[in-house]
Structures
1.
Amino acid sequence: MENQSIYFEIRAGVGGEEAALFAKDLWNMYSKFFEKKGFKFRVLDLNQSSLNGIKTIIAEISGPGVYDLLKNEAGVHRVQRVPVTEKSGRLHTSTASVAIIPKIKVNDIIIKDSDLEISFFRAGGPGGQNVNKVETAVRILHKPSGIIVSCQTERSQQKNRELALEILKSKLREQEQRKIIGSVDEERKKQIGFQERSEKIKTYNFAQNRLTDHRLNKSWYNLDEIMEGKLDKVLEAFYNRDNSKK
């Protein structure tokens, strides 16, 4: 299969802190799957919640056929469970969204320094004292398009700046290629909608140990294994459906 690269985003949706904890669980699930498949991945930006959940995470994933394999994961994922933050044992329904953007070669994209507004801030999360005391994290605003990207994964300011520019260039290329159907933001909105519960593509029901894909009208009753990264059968269901149409 052809080697491909994508930008993979998970964003907490409706449900407050529980949505952020669910987004973290989704990232753990996908990252374990990436490891099993031998995909290369690195986190480019991470925004955590007060209880160590994930508000937003953006990662770069590379491997054979990774976009073809994961493209159907884009959309709103819904969880039904009793949150660890719930003291009265009530069942909650929350959401998190997944967006998948193919990484495109950007050698021909030229960005003027005058079009950029660059700011630096202290990175959060693991990394030692240097991360917390020095403003190594980078945020870049591309003024003509309004696109904002940030990166805090590296220890040096220069490395984070280079990675942020790489993401920006890829977003600009994607935007350029989609002019006839809309901007990158519109494509992303098409994938995730407004993150409402009713827009779900999948439901993770922990009480019933069940994952349901509402597009396929199909359920799997091994959610505990799926959350450990055993996604092959779930992804194969879409692969088989797509190939049957050819």
2.
Amino acid sequence: MSQANSSEADSNVWTIGRLINWTNQYLSDNGSDSSRLDTEILLAEVLGCERIMLYTRFEEDPGEQIRSKFRELVKRRAAGCPVAYLVGHKEFFSLKFKVTTDTLIPRPDTEDAVQAILDLAKNNPSQVNTIADVGTGSGILAVTLAKELQDCRFLATDISEAALAVAQENAHSHGVIDRIKFRVGDLCIPLQGQTYDIIVSNPPYISETEIEECSRDIRDYEPQLALVSGPTGMEIYQRLVPEAQPLLNPGGWLVLETSPMLAPTLKETLEKQGYQNVDIKQDYTGNPRIVLGQV
């Protein structure tokens, strides 16, 4: 083969670098606002390697079997399916969590709820021994806090048995299953019979109107049960805030994630219910995100 023919053949090989460049543009054209990241996560998944290793393998031909698996994932991503569901996991607080379509996809915003509780525990180490996570989903709050607060005991609840099963898997994989009890049920019903130093929740707070305006990734794929509260977005809070109050130990805290639009109203709701020291914490982008109050 002549040098010219060899170069022509090489240009037709779907190397890892060429796959990344083409898919990045394809996903961008199909509505992804994180097309490069999506591409790399999906390709690393089918290759069974860390994303960083892709950069050392740009000239490699991964072979037709890998390309076929990759193409199928890319098609589903272009149709709107979130990357986390395609690969079956998502990182949160530097930990890898299993996720399924029965659970919300963990978001960086929720890490602020973890940090708020770690701050409470640091300031009052002897007063934070029992924590309940209401609406645990994939278990990110309970499991992450159990990793960080190794002397605490936890209860994680969810109305969805399927979500609770995922949370149990994550607790097992991170070695904290022995310190977390799991109960199925609506809001604070599974908490009855015990009191807690902290009750934390990231409940549904999207209104029925807002969900229609969400991206298709959220609207069409993530569980509506974990997203939509009702006509205003405040419906779950209006039940949870009074339910949690008698289940908190004296000096205990209710810690809630919310949207920036609802934070002032939620703060007022806690104050009217008689919570003390009610405060709003900002997230990493400077938006009001965490509302907490003490009994």
3.
Amino acid sequence: MTNSRAPQSGAIPRAGRVLPTLNEDGSRRWIRPKPSHGPWWKRRQVVAYVLMALFFAAPHMRVFGKPVFLMDLPRRQFTLMGYTFLPTDTLLFMFTMGAGVIGIFLITALWGRAWCGWACPQTVYLEFLFRPIGRWFDGGYTSSRALDKKGAWFTPRRLGKYITFFLLALYVSHTMLAFFVGTDQLYGWMTRSPSEHPSAFLFVVLFTGIVWFNFTYFREQTCLIVCPYGRWQSALIDRQSVIVAYDVNRGEPRAHAGATRSTGAGDCIDCKACVQTCPTGIDIRNGLQMECVHCTQCIDACDDIMTRIGKPKGLIRYSSQDAIAGQPRKFLRLRTVLYPVVLAVLLGGLGFTMWSKPAADLTVLRGLDAPFTTEADGRIANQIRIKITNRRAEAMRYPVAFGGLVGASVESAPPIDAAQVTVVAPENPLTVGAGATRTTSVFVLLPATAFVRGERFITITVSDDRGYLETVRYRLLGPSSSTPNPNPAGTP
């Protein structure tokens, strides 16, 4: 859409707009939104500062002795609110991610792009940290626009702005790294040479550059070009979803405040205050648009103008497309019923799985070599690998006990004399650190007569001193009466 009119004969052509951030000649249209410090701005400001405080404080916060959020990639662990998701927690991770996605879908179906306008880091940091600092360095809204027209990109004040943005980006990148390695590791790296941790140093360099480039130059282009959320809104919202909307019935036809207003003129005086304050450069009066992030700045700007000219507030307000058209509100509709049901199922599954999850994960595996071997004394040896993952926040000792070796087995196999049974366990009990995984090998030697049809079932029980107890059924392999052992001890 082009806002400029065709030039009259003899007039000098003037570059107009074809997109919110693009002029007809292909040049970048720099957006310097004029802030409107109304009630909605103040509410968003409180939310933004709370979110920023949580982001910077979260790496230092602990729940049950664990970080509030930690994505430990080297150890393949994810900690959230004191609970650690291990590589074996695929189901838990699926429930958590699914609930997050459906939650955003539900919020969008009910309140449009509330995430974009109120909680998205791009909006929060751009509108309440970087842009206010930029205005202070540039000398305010009017001075910023004047510097743009002059092409004065490298004045001393703007150079100071760029340096300040770099320092902020550096701090943000270090905080982000703390979410992946923890504050203790980060503090250690900061006091040592980058050559000792080149990957982490490279991450900080790249992320600092990305953050600086984004908030110094790219800014609203991230929302308009990179982020797909605006393009999803056509599928995620309907005509009943609450959005930031212009009441076309009340506002049209427009008439300037200084002009003679006819009896049928609408309340909109075409002051363009809503356009000047928009951080993505759109005209909200053109209806629902992909570029609108529902930041409510146009609401504050328009309400201020309506108050000045003695008109009721709400010409631009939170509403829905159907409400603006005079249709009744329908809260219960397919997506507002389906999304909560799916969300409840996912949260219920997450809660049940977390509640029923044991304090340790036990995995029993067969040896890596032959299924069994025959020793020199004729006994049959089975190698068993026992893998234990400790979910507790402290190191634990796990004794391993075997059932069905002496006497009758769990499958009523022939009894065995205790003198013929040998269990070789290099480390029993097995000590496993907090959140760690360890594997130990155990060798069980039994006489050949202990096996029936080439197998004997036993039980393996692992416990700790804090109530954890888990027993698994395991099948030992041996020679059968019809098939001799192809791997006797000493056979190559």
4.
Amino acid sequence: MTDSDAPRLAELERGFRRAGVPNFIEEYSARSDVFTRALPVLTLVFLLETLNALDLKYAWWANVLFLLGGAAIALGAFGGLNMMRHVRFLSRPTRVGTGELAIFVVVPSLLPLIFGGQWRSAAVTVLLQLALLALVYLVVGFGLFSIVRWAGARFEQQLRASLVLLVRALPLLLFFALVTFFTTEFWQMFSTVSTDRYATTMVLFAALGTLFLLLQIPSNVAGLEREAGLSVPLTRAQQWNVGLVLFISQALQILFVVLAVWLFFMVFGALMASPAVQLSWMNGVHSVHVLHLPLLGTRTRITAELVRVATGTAALSGLYYAVAMVVDGNYRDEFVTKVTDQMRETFARRGEYLALLGRANQDV
């Protein structure tokens, strides 16, 4: 490898991160590249969670002792791990491995158990720590923010690729939405249910839509590899990374449809469904006025029930559009072709990157 190859390799690796495909970097690992990069955030969270040792049932001086004890346990755990690895007690880890992650999860969870017998708090802390590590791995390990930025910059082109599907799906979608929107049962169902059940239903719609998208990701990634004609096949981690790019690109399209439908029914419902009509649909249950807007020379009322029903209609529409994406073969082919064209430069840089690495290995 020549002296000019090293800067070029570093430039290509930075380009992979900006494009949302950090797994294209060879020897990319969670130990050295993911959790180590997130070490400052994890350290801050770990220090804040020493507050788990506090228990408001006890006097302030007892909580001070608990806090000092929790800090001593946390510091001792990391220091002991450093001593086992024959490094200084307070040295900063150069790599975040299994030991550091185990301490990050276990120690904050043990503190409420040791200093107050709060086993529920301990269990919740374990789940929250694991969820945080999963989020860090998703954001850093797969370049989530970079993927969103990459997909957002190309959103118009990708939406154009799905224009045929949108035109075919829109008439049936609007017909279904309009018929259900102006029914008494629909308003009673969404406006009278408790908030927690309503939120659970919205999450269920989102989960089902996500599941439909995930089911087609493997075939889409395989189609993208065929379209790109890669000389070196993608590894499993790289396929997952590309799959996440495809998933977010399609999720942004569904989000656009959901927001458009929601906005349409918010405006349409505010204009056509007066508070008196809404009251009759809800069996005399008084509506809650959220906002007054001056529209067409009158003060139009936006009610909480209208927001709920419009959101429910938009969520159902998003689920329908996600299903349409899965079952429409023409859309899948057009979408994969469009993403392949957009990622062709990234694939070309991957070929150059692998060639430079191969030359470096030959020199060694």
